[in-house]
Amino acid sequence: MSAIKNKYLEYSIIVISGFLYTFAFAPINFKVGIFLSLTFFLYILSTSSKRSSLFKSFIYGIIVFTSGVSWIFNSIYNYGGEYFFLSIIITLLFIILLSILFIPFGYFVNEDTNLDRLGIPILIASIWVFIEFIRSNIFGGFPWLLVGNSQTETIFDHIFPLFGSYMVSFIVVMISMMLVAVISSKSKKNLLKTYSFSILILYLFTIFFSNFSLDSERPLKVTIVQPNINLGIKFNDDELNNIKKKYIEIFENKINKLVILPETAIPKIYQLDKEFYDLLRTNRDINLISGVFNYNRENNKIYNSIVMLNNSETFYNKRHLVPFGEYTPLKSVFGFVSDTLNIPMSNLSPGDLSQKQLIYDDIILHPLVCYEIAYPSLIGKSEDYSIIVNISNDAWFGNSFAPHQHLQIAQVRALESSRTVIRAANTGISAVINKNGKILNKINLNEDGYINTDIYPSKGLTPYMYFGDYPILMLIFTIMLLYWKNNKGHG
Q1: 225 and 168 in one domain?
Q2: Please, which residues bridge with residue 288 across strands?
Q3: Which of 130, 118, 144 minimizes the C-alpha distance to 400?
Q4: Where does 315-440 have alpha helices with state H?
Q5: Could you give the CA distance from residue 333 to residue 473 in angstroms, rounded to a whole number?
Q6: Which of 47, 213, 255, 289 has the highest local Cβ count within 10 Å?
Q7: Residue 311: which domain range?
Q8: β-bridge partners, 67
């Protein structure tokens, strides 16, 4: 194997690889970019010393997250008091913390790694997925830019309903590491034959499974509303009447019996302004689903909620809150940060894990508020006819990659669950996503409007919804355990 001797060129390739990683996701959707990125990155590590590989892994992480998620600066700065330096510091700390998680790859992939060993690609893929899993769950989790999520509307669409996004990550990293091994190994022909045969068998296995749900013959007629209200006025009490007028104007159009509004449609405690919702609903004889701030008098808590208004009033309280945006973790330590930023409604409470189902016209609605769409475990397991309803307010992130990435995550949930996803977002991107992950209709970012659509609910459980992430976690832990025992035996 030949190392790149020019260090400037080597680091330039790492930087380019980091950008290629981000470009594989929406809105650019350069799908093959993730393979190029990982292959270049892992090849450079395989020709570097262990110490150098650790550092290069960190630099790769810095480029990935700077190019991919630095949009958090928008929300911290624009809606947290416009403290420029504090916003920069928090954004940099966030990127650095995420990038640290890339460092272990340098320990396992370096010039001492024996690429002739057939099991190396599945070992590296296992470590990658393990770290993605940690990143998705520790300290509230940040399941953004997971490798698997980049591969919507590709051949991997067959994998999502079987094993979920982590398995797609596993396969993509495995194939990339196989390419590095074939390029670098002395046993090129043998490795190429073995790896090609393995990928072919995997592909043939997945295409035999294609349909896991049955669609209803009776459509659900739904209207999705995107008001496009700038956050600069949304939390301004003086603008409240103008916001209400905008909804009234949209409701004067021809709309369906079930109307879905975005997250916190009216920036006021629901119980203090119920009359407005009643006005919207009764004047048109419709059923309404809306994001609201819900105050519970019994426990004196405020929730970020969904309310469904028909003949009764049913609430769903958001379970997975956004750290610092909706609550302050370790308040004794980080309380000064939230006090300084003063982000509106950032002292909310999480809802109970088990809540009353939302049911409309005998159809189960799986409610997810904003960031919750990134967590498949929050979708209820139901074999009855159902759809997923995701409401959001991505105005926090401005004209960045975030709303597009958020929509792509919703596509992954549609594929994994084999359920239609209805998405209503304040400034966009509102959309109808079918159970195969295809976007059937959408309202572009920073536009107002509405979508009238016929939804065909589905019933039945995909293997992924039944087993969750247990199969992939069992696989990667088994692989890592066998590697550890093998190395120990030879040690």
Answers
A1: no
A2: 259, 309
A3: 144
A4: 331-341, 402-417
A5: 33
A6: 289
A7: 217-461
A8: none
Q: How far is Cα 213 from Cα 463, in angstroms, rounded to an integer?
A: 11
Distances in whole angstroms, Cα of residue 216 to Cα of each of 66, 213, 439: 44, 10, 19
Q: How far apart are CA 265 and CA 393, in angstroms?
A: 9
Instruction: State the residue for tokens 């004196």.
Output: 300
In a domain, 446, yes or no: yes
Do 144 and 193 belong together in one domain? yes
Which phi and psi angles does 387 have, rounded to 5°? -140, 165
C-alpha to C-alpha distance for 7 and 18, rounded to whole angstroms: 17
Instruction: Indicate if 289 and 370 belong to the same structural domain.
Output: yes
Q: In this structure, are 153 and 57 located in the same domain?
A: yes
Q: By C-alpha distance, which of 90, 101, 159 is closest to 127? A: 101
Burial of 78 (0-12, 13-18, 19+ CB in 10 A): middle
Radius of gyration of the chain (CA): 24
| Contact by Cβ (8 Å): 39, 180 | yes
Q: What is the CATH number of the domain that holds 387?
A: 3.60.110.10
Burial 479-488 (b: 16+ CB within 10 A, else e): beeebeeeee
Q: Same domain for 371 and 411?
A: yes
Angle at 224 (CA atoms; ends 218, 228), nearest 5 degrees: 170
Q: How confident is the model at residue 218 (pLDDT cuts 50, 70, 90)?
A: very high
DSSP-assigned letters across all residues of 368-382: EEGGGGG-GGGS---
pLDDT tens track for 250-299: 888 899 999 999 998 888 899 988 888 888 887 778 899 999 999 998 89
The count of domains in the chain is: 2
Both tokens of 245, joined, read 């007028």
pLDDT at residue 342, as a whole number = 58
Is the residue at 281 inside a domain?
yes
CA angle 309, 313, 316 (to 5 degrees): 95
Please state the φ and ψ torsions of residue 17, each to the nearest 5 degrees: -60, -40
Distance of CA 288 to the CA centre of its chain: 26
The reply to whether 245 and 98 lie within a common domain is: no
Could you tell me if residue 247 is inside a domain?
A: yes
- Nearest residue to 101 (alpha-carbon basis) of 132, 141, 126: 132
SS3 content of the chain, % helix, strand, coil (to 5): 50, 15, 30
Q: DSSP code of 232?
A: H
Task: Say whether both 21 and 56 belong to one domain.
Answer: yes
Answer whether 0.85 is exceeded by the pTM. yes
State pLDDT tens for residues 123-174. 999 999 999 999 998 877 889 999 999 999 999 999 999 999 999 999 999 9
Tracing tokens 């409401």 back to the chain, one arrives at 391
Q: In whole angstroms, what is the distance from residue 304 CA to residue 319 CA? A: 9
Contact 121, 177 (CB under 8 A): yes
Indicate whether 1 belongs to any domain. Answer: no
